[in-house]
């Protein structure tokens, strides 16, 4: 990152960027909770997305992917409570109806509306509640509506997840804001959750797509909670150009700065998702350094973060480093086990693949913190990757044993 690059945190989430409004309302889908959100740009946007790699894809994913084939959008509508997945032709009809009603209410073209859903699979949307909720939501669209929208897309999340940053492109202030939901069915296989990112920067759609895909690989694709990849996962990025910067249409220093800021937004949201894993008590960061290739580093970091044996050891504050090297060993990464060093926080527990006489007391104290850092040094190259996950607790089973109730 450039030394001149200054990133300022600002409030507002997805509405921090100029020209965007949003809302989150109670449509009655989930009784007394906010459950319907809209993001709307007064200006048409360049837009792009990445989507779940699950072979079973919900109707909203299918429709949004189709709509974004031309790289433009102006509004997004998201409901929580029902995934609108595995509902046959009715699911697509409901997604289309939702978008057409919103488009009419906003007086924009229907193909400019993107749709997302999250919740229980295999149950039809309560369309009467959603359609009535659209009228309420449109009436409450506001530049201050970002936090309400972030709350409305939650399912088993315990906290809403949002961030916004301000920086300059060639002297022009621009903002990137985002919100996400995710707590369960989180695994590094594409987007792993729902994420919505807005910016008032002017960016050519081809560069926007390149930036998002590159950043997702390093952020949302590096988080794991439980090894499940949902039918509804997507991340959308909308750029309306309201900041007035000269459009980014070629790679260079400004594009690099934009990607850096976008990465910071996505890292923040990724860590919030991982730390809010269902039943979790700790955020776990696994960093692999000095790997021969980026792919080796990513494979090892993700596999260690996803290991149930590692996750349960962290829950119990047990410094069982053998589980860490074991997970790295079956990850598919290429490395020499006889060179590996492992650290839990500042406590080195293994050197050259062998045990050290480390402080069990200090290691246990490190593993008892809300944020736990694991460092694995392959000592075979120069590449690095970081993955984020959480511990595995009794409450995960409690939550998922009664998810539909």
From TrEMBL:
<feature type="active site" description="Nucleophile">
    <location>
        <position position="192"/>
    </location>
</feature>
<dbReference type="GO" id="GO:0005737">
    <property type="term" value="C:cytoplasm"/>
</dbReference>
<comment type="function">
    <text>Catalyzes two activities which are involved in the cyclic version of arginine biosynthesis: the synthesis of N-acetylglutamate from glutamate and acetyl-CoA as the acetyl donor, and of ornithine by transacetylation between N(2)-acetylornithine and glutamate.</text>
</comment>
<keyword id="KW-0012">Acyltransferase</keyword>
<dbReference type="InterPro" id="IPR002813">
    <property type="entry name" value="Arg_biosynth_ArgJ"/>
</dbReference>
<keyword id="KW-0511">Multifunctional enzyme</keyword>
<feature type="binding site">
    <location>
        <position position="405"/>
    </location>
    <ligand>
        <name>substrate</name>
    </ligand>
</feature>
<dbReference type="InterPro" id="IPR042195">
    <property type="entry name" value="ArgJ_beta_C"/>
</dbReference>
<keyword id="KW-0963">Cytoplasm</keyword>
<feature type="binding site">
    <location>
        <position position="400"/>
    </location>
    <ligand>
        <name>substrate</name>
    </ligand>
</feature>
<dbReference type="GO" id="GO:0006526">
    <property type="term" value="P:L-arginine biosynthetic process"/>
</dbReference>
<feature type="site" description="Involved in the stabilization of negative charge on the oxyanion by the formation of the oxyanion hole">
    <location>
        <position position="119"/>
    </location>
</feature>
<keyword id="KW-0055">Arginine biosynthesis</keyword>
<comment type="pathway">
    <text>Amino-acid biosynthesis; L-arginine biosynthesis; N(2)-acetyl-L-ornithine from L-glutamate: step 1/4.</text>
</comment>
<feature type="binding site">
    <location>
        <position position="192"/>
    </location>
    <ligand>
        <name>substrate</name>
    </ligand>
</feature>
<feature type="site" description="Cleavage; by autolysis">
    <location>
        <begin position="191"/>
        <end position="192"/>
    </location>
</feature>
<comment type="pathway">
    <text>Amino-acid biosynthesis; L-arginine biosynthesis; L-ornithine and N-acetyl-L-glutamate from L-glutamate and N(2)-acetyl-L-ornithine (cyclic): step 1/1.</text>
</comment>
<keyword id="KW-0068">Autocatalytic cleavage</keyword>
<dbReference type="Pfam" id="PF01960">
    <property type="entry name" value="ArgJ"/>
</dbReference>
<dbReference type="InterPro" id="IPR016117">
    <property type="entry name" value="ArgJ-like_dom_sf"/>
</dbReference>
<dbReference type="GO" id="GO:0004042">
    <property type="term" value="F:L-glutamate N-acetyltransferase activity"/>
</dbReference>
<feature type="binding site">
    <location>
        <position position="155"/>
    </location>
    <ligand>
        <name>substrate</name>
    </ligand>
</feature>
<feature type="binding site">
    <location>
        <position position="181"/>
    </location>
    <ligand>
        <name>substrate</name>
    </ligand>
</feature>
<dbReference type="GO" id="GO:0004358">
    <property type="term" value="F:L-glutamate N-acetyltransferase activity, acting on acetyl-L-ornithine as donor"/>
</dbReference>
<comment type="similarity">
    <text>Belongs to the ArgJ family.</text>
</comment>
<comment type="subunit">
    <text>Heterotetramer of two alpha and two beta chains.</text>
</comment>
<feature type="site" description="Involved in the stabilization of negative charge on the oxyanion by the formation of the oxyanion hole">
    <location>
        <position position="118"/>
    </location>
</feature>
<dbReference type="GO" id="GO:0006592">
    <property type="term" value="P:ornithine biosynthetic process"/>
</dbReference>
<keyword id="KW-0028">Amino-acid biosynthesis</keyword>
<feature type="binding site">
    <location>
        <position position="278"/>
    </location>
    <ligand>
        <name>substrate</name>
    </ligand>
</feature>
<keyword id="KW-0808">Transferase</keyword>
<protein>
    <recommendedName>
        <fullName>Arginine biosynthesis bifunctional protein ArgJ</fullName>
        <ecNumber>2.3.1.35</ecNumber>
        <ecNumber>2.3.1.1</ecNumber>
    </recommendedName>
</protein>
